[in-house]
Every structure is written in structure tokens, then in C-alpha cells.
Design goal:
SurA N-terminal domain-containing protein, 10 strands, 2 domains, signal, 11 helices, alpha+beta, five-stranded antiparallel beta sheet
């Protein structure tokens, strides 16, 4: 009998294999005609529909979504942008974020000047259509200002952000593979880990001993792994368990226990300032704390707020993951 020895690879490598290049669900709002309630402020259904109608007029390719009965993709994307706007406002009310208005004007002009209608022959993907349609639905200065605010939030947070965690991977064909979706298995594993920190450690060690891709005490920073800076790994709070699918095109799920999360860790002596790509990837994720503090309610007609994806998912069963507080721990 041949014995196969599995060499455990660092999480960054494994996540890259799974394609992690990322560009608290809630019940529906109680107020009539509310698409969402963020920080006590209502975002109306009429406002969402107004922007969807504007997007349809500005981007002819949106008709493709209508023909395919996928206009819900556009509605959710519009509502997400409105929610992000409120999250940025709540964040900047507590933490100053400097935005140069001249840069806002310049970027808004670039957005306006660079617009080219997408092909209407079906060659454009739904994702391409939604992205461009959302940009056309909002005022250019509004899109530009929010974009620059997110980039600045990411730039400020990147140097001091550090996360230490245990993890295990739920992948197809594992030694204990049983019937059922990987999502179900990953969330079940996350709930097991969330019983207590001690129990989480025992389960992770058992996975390591059993030859699974698992490890304890991994530490990561955005600078060390810029391609995964937008993942829930960097936004989840201390003493929580996360389960998320890095990329829907790949089957594997990551389940991790957040053991330590620092936002003001000393940067490495040779650390460089966050570049534009890292800053814009990290920025939206840094609003996760704000989202949990102020609360987000989404009308069921649009779906649920996906804290792991920082977006709106059609249903709880279609979120990009879960964030579960570990029981019997201090906040």
C-alpha cells in the first residue's frame, strides 16, 4: 500500500487555487415601500426603480437582462450602491476621510467621457452590463466621490490591519466526503467551531491530524495578500467564525476562526503605502464593522444583506458565506 503524504500549503496559496480574486443577513424592513433601512434611514423602492429605469435608458444592453428575466441583478446592484453610500456616510461621520473635490470632478469627467455602449448582440455578460448600467444610473460625481472615499478608507486601514486565524478547507473529495452541498458542509462546520474557542481548536487540530488542509495561528495582512484583501477574512470581528466560498467558479469553501484582529498593528519596516488596487479592494470590506454597528435591513423583494460578500444576495442560501459569533466569549 502506498502512503500519500499531504503537504499543507499556506492559506494564501490555497485561496489563490480556489480563485479568490474578489472584486448577518436580516429580515425585511417593517416600513412600507422601503427597499432597505440603513442606520435608521429608509431607501425607498421608488428610488431604486427610478435608478433602474434611468439605467435602462442610458445603457441599451440592459434590454438583454430584461429579455433574460435578469433585471433583478440590476435592481440588487443599484440598491447595493445606495446602501454603500449610506455606509460611507456613517463611517466618515466617525472617522474623517479626506476627499479632494478637484479629483472628484476629474474622475467624474473621466467616467462621463469614457462611456461606450455595450454590444446588444448578447456578447456582453450580465456582470458587464450590470456594472456599466449602475455607473450610468447615478450622477458621475456621486459615483466618483464614493469610489474615492472607499479608496481612501482602504489606504488608511491597510498599513495597520492584521488578522490571525485558524482555518480548515471544505473541498470536494475529502476523506470524510458525504452527500450534500459543500455550502451545507461548510456552514455546518462553522457552527461546530462556533460552540467555543476551545472546541474550535480541537476540531481544527483533528482536521490537521486527519490530513485535511488546515492550520492554526496563521497571520495575514493586506500587503502580504493583496488579491484577497476584499475577502471577509479581513473584515470579520474577533472571536467569530466565517465560512465563505472564495469564487463561485470553484467549489472549495474556507472556514476560519478569527483569533486576533488588529487595525493599528505596526507596519513592517520596509512596508510600502497601499497602491490604488489594494486600497480600492480593501475599502468596501472596511465598512463591514460599520454595517454590523448600524444595522442593515433589506426588503425580501430584493433579498438579504450578505455580510460575507458586502452585497445583496437573492436569498440566505445564496450568500457568499456566513459570519457567526463564537459562543461564550467576551465581546
Amino acid at each position: 500500500m502506498t502512503t500519500v503524504i499531504r503537504r499543507r500549503r499556506p492559506l494564501v496559496v490555497l485561496l489563490a487555487v480556489f480563485g479568490l480574486l474578489l472584486s448577518a443577513c436580516s429580515t425585511g424592513p417593517g416600513q412600507a415601500n422601503a427597499a432597505a433601512i440603513v442606520n435608521g434611514k429608509t431607501i425607498g423602492v421608488d428610488r431604486v426603480q427610478e435608478l433602474v429605469d434611468k439605467a435602462r435608458q442610458a445603457e441599451p444592453a440592459v434590454q438583454q437582462l430584461a429579455d433574460q428575466r435578469k433585471l433583478d441583478l440590476l435592481s440588487r446592484a443599484v440598491l447595493r450602491q445606495l446602501v454603500l453610500h449610506e455606509l460611507i456616510a456613517a463611517h466618515t461621520a466617525k472617522e474623517s476621510v479626506a476627499i479632494n473635490e478637484a479629483t472628484v470632478t476629474e474622475l467624474a469627467g473621466q467616467l462621463t467621457g469614457s462611456f461606450q455602449p455595450l454590444p446588444t448582440d448578447g456578447s456582453a455578460s450580465p456582470e458587464q452590463i450590470v456594472d456599466q448600467a449602475v455607473n450610468r444610473a447615478f450622477e458621475p460625481t456621486e459615483i466618483a466621490r464614493d469610489y474615492l472615499a472607499l479608496a481612501e478608507i482602504g489606504r488608511k486601514r491597510a498599513p495597520g490591519l492584521s488578522v490571525t486565524f485558524d482555518f480548515t478547507l471544505v473541498a470536494p473529495g475529502g476523506p470524510d466526503d458525504k452527500p450534500g452541498s459543500l455550502r451545507e458542509k461548510a456552514i455546518a462546520k462553522a457552527n461546530q467551531l462556533a460552540v467555543s474557542l476551545d472546541e474550535a481548536g480541537k476540531i481544527i487540530e483533528a482536521d490537521m491530524a486527519g490530513g485535511l488542509q488546515a492550520a492554526r495561528g496563521e497571520t495575514i495582512t493586506p500587503a502580504l495578500a493583496p488579491d484577497i484583501a476584499g475577502s471577509v477574512l479581513f473584515g470579520a470581528p474577533l472571536n467569530s467564525v466565517i465560512a465563505f466560498q472564495p469564487n463561485p467558479e470553484n467549489a472549495g469553501w474556507v472556514v476560519a476562526v478569527i483569533r486576533k484582529r488588529e487595525t493599528d498593528a505596526p507596519p513592517a519596516p520596509d512596508a510600502k503605502p497601499a497602491d490604488a488596487r489594494l486600497a480600492t479592494t480593501l475599502g468596501p470590506r472596511m465598512l463591514q464593522d460599520t454595517a454590523q454597528q448600524i444595522g442593515i435591513e433589506i426588503s425580501p423583494r430584493y433579498g438579504v444583506w450578505d455580510l460575507a460578500g458586502m452585497e445583496i444576495a437573492p436569498s440566505e442560501g445564496e450568500t457568499k458565506g456566513v459570519v457567526i459569533p463564537i459562543k461564550n466569549t467576551n465581546p
